[in-house]
Amino acid sequence: MKFFIFLAALFVTNISLAEKTNIECRPAASGVELIAEGGMQLSIPGRIDCQFSYELIEDVDGLKSEGIFIGPTESELGPRAAFTVYVRPTGSNGFELAGDIPVAANQITKGRYQYVEQEGGGLYLSYYVIKDRKITLSPLSKALMIEGLYCISQSRVTNMISVEKKASCIKKLRATFEKPICVLTADNVSRVVARSQCSDVRL
Question: What is the DSSP letter of 164?
């Protein structure tokens, strides 16, 4: 029971859902299948029962495409748990596997989600985009560094621990909790920007 309450809370707090259609889950020969009003049917291989969350979203990408978010099973829960997303564009007959979005991601707009994770001495923000029936990572990302010494070069901001001795640094910056460094990466080019640009990088 606690498992279902937990998954329901994830949808309410992180993924903002549109008006939903009732879906029924049934066992199938090679997994399970989801059946919704209007004849929608989706086969999900590899699942042995219906002990997971599932939601049908009427406009998942801002282009009126339908999407189905399949939640992780109890054994798949963890820091990197993810929703598996299927998308059916307007006029299409079937759903296609689009990819995964972390359970902890927050919806910004239709089809766009942001995800923050802590690793080492920093917080990292990445964007997941649902477009053309696929989920892709945006080339834009942010990092709020709160610990460590960093080498600033023309196109990189690198922790000095990972920098080769012969590497050339334009300057070096030390990040602390009181004075963090905000790093913006776009198209594989990283640069230090004003800390105010990392106001959304938080857990």
Answer: -
**pTM value?**
0.78
Q: How far is CA 8 from CA 12, 37, 101, in A?
A: 6, 21, 16
Question: Coil, strand, or helix at residue 166?
Answer: coil
Distance CA 39, CA 42 (A): 10
- HSE at residue 90, side-chain half, CA atoms within 13 A, is 8
- Kindly give, in sequence order, each residue whose CB lies less than 8 Å from that of residue 83, ignoring residues fewer than 6 positions away: 15, 69, 70, 71, 72, 100, 101, 102, 103
* Integer angstrom CA distances of residue 53 from 10, 46, 110, 130, 194: 10, 15, 20, 20, 40
> What is the DSSP annotation of 121-134?
TEEEEEEEEEETTE
Q: Is 131 left (phi over 0), alpha (psi -120 to 50) or beta?
A: beta
CA distance linking residue 122 with residue 127, whole number of Å: 17
What is the pairing mode between strands 171-175 and 41-45?
unpaired
Q: What tens digit of pLDDT does each residue of 79-105 get?
A: 789 999 999 888 777 888 999 999 999
